[in-house]
Structure prediction request, 252 residues.
Amino acid sequence: MILDLMSVPVTVKEDAYVTHVRQIMREGHRSLPVVDAQSRIKGMVTLTDILKVTSTKSDVTVSGFIQQTGIASPNADIMDAARIFGSTGFDIPVARSYEDITIIGVIDSEKLFNNLNFKMEKAIVGDIMTRTIRTCNADDPVSKVWLNMTQYGLSGYPVIKRKRLVGIITLKDLLSAGYVRLEREDERGGRDIYPPNVEKVMKTPVMTVVSDSTIWEAANLMRQYEIGRLPVVEDRKLIGIVDRQDLVKVII
Prediction:
């Protein structure tokens, strides 16, 4: 049963304006369930999608950004929820039943991840890591990274300096630091003539794993440091990256 993992849902209506949804997401939500007028689940909307809409387009609704998602029932078990997350990467909406998709709760993907058992898994990080990685340089302006995040839908970038991994920067870091706002016009240079560079905002030292680290070791690091992704290194050189969804796919 997944009821112990479920929390009261924060939802948005399918005809809500994107400007309103951005305001809600400022509170730290990475994804939100979208519902109709009867609170029936229509799908999910993500922060990276919402950021693609410029702040001047105040009449744009969230309906054009809804992504399909799996739905859990109150009788589902934790592995049912894990299979949904492994497929979508979103938080998991919970409905009254599979026939009545009125939303009654949501399962936070991080909380779900922290309750999964990876201990018996024999796979290693090198078997599942993503080898094609987008990175940024330590001296890049944060405005450039911000625009890349909204363009490519990525929420974190490893930071490179002199061909070595020196840190990591995430969407959450940029929002928390207050250097950028949730309007793309600002990142094009409107208000901040001399934006700070990545080195001032990135997290360092960065937690890393090696390619022969076990899935269990990687999961423990993510839980301990409350992070969603780990760079994979070899002699401090970046060779891959692994995230929560990658780990969950191994065990479902």
The radius of gyration is 19 Å. The chain has two domains: 3-114, 125-251.
